[in-house]
Design goal:
3 domains; two-stranded antiparallel sheet; 5 strands
């Protein structure tokens, strides 16, 4: 069973995802806070969470994203079968909010504001995560990314959501596909060690650790000199993703 705080945060998330989906797929734009707020309050300033999820469900009537619709239905079941159903949120209550209602209303608002304000351009996110911008754009277009906004030809995405996709970081390769074939053994080995050094730089960046080798644990590189570039990149990209999961987002 979800906690009250978890349900409130999920309500705010689904509220903003409806805004994002609507603006991407229709001509409707949400220009004010009140317009967004009405998705869960209707025309009232104070609402219960039970009525709020029912109001949001109505807003999703025209949405075609099945994953979001399923999340709304799951949250509806949780809220309507919990004490949160009759808890109030919003503005200007006829009788003062309880301490719990104040806390949950603040949580609803801060979650909403965080989702609204955390977007950045694909170019900036791609640079921070060392991911191809084209890969991020394709994920946004396919709605594998949901907290996205498109203005003209410019996409904005959420860094944390992109990271959750688990896209492997990449290192730009030579435009000449046959370049490696023209290198002497010593030059090729040097290039491979440079590739490894670049990945270690990323590991240090995202794991916030100074001594990378202490983090490798059972990872072994005895055969590194005989590995292909693709094998090196795949192995180390997997390791960097492991660092993301273990140490979290780099500051």
């Amino acid at each position: 069973m979800m906690t009250k705080s978890e349900m409130v945060k999920e309500l705010a998330y689904l509220q903003i995802m409806l805004v994002r989906w609507t603006e991407r797929n229709t001509s409707q734009k949400f220009k004010t806070y009140r317009e967004i707020d009405r998705l869960i309050t209707g025309n009232r300033y104070t609402q219960t969470y039970g009525e709020g999820i029912l109001q949001l469900e109505k807003g999703y009537a025209s949405c075609t994203n099945q994953s979001l619709i399923e999340l709304v239905q799951k949250l509806k079941e949780h809220i309507l079968n919990s004490e949160l159903k009759d808890v109030r949120f919003g503005l200007s209550p006829h009788r003062p909010f309880t301490e719990e209602e104040h806390e949950l209303t603040r949580l609803l608002l801060t979650t909403y504001l965080s989702l609204i304000s955390c977007l950045d351009t694909i170019g900036n996110v791609a640079e921070q995560l060392n991911i191809s911008p084209e890969t991020i754009k394709k994920a946004a277009q396919e709605e594998r990314l949901l907290n996205t906004k498109k203005t003209g030809k410019t996409w904005e995405v959420e860094l944390a959501e992109v990271r959750k996709l688990g896209i492997k970081p990449y290192i730009k390769k030579s435009e000449d596909k046959n370049a490696d074939e023209n290198l002497e053994d010593g030059e090729l080995l040097q290039k491979r060690h440079e590739t490894l050094s670049e990945y270690f730089r990323l590991v240090r960046k995202y794991s916030k650790q100074d001594n990378v080798f202490e983090l490798l644990e059972d990872q072994r590189f005895e055969n590194f000199d005989t590995m292909t570039d693709d094998e090196i990149e795949n192995m180390l990209a997997d390791y960097i993703n492991w660092c993301y999961d273990r140490y979290g987002e780099c500051e």
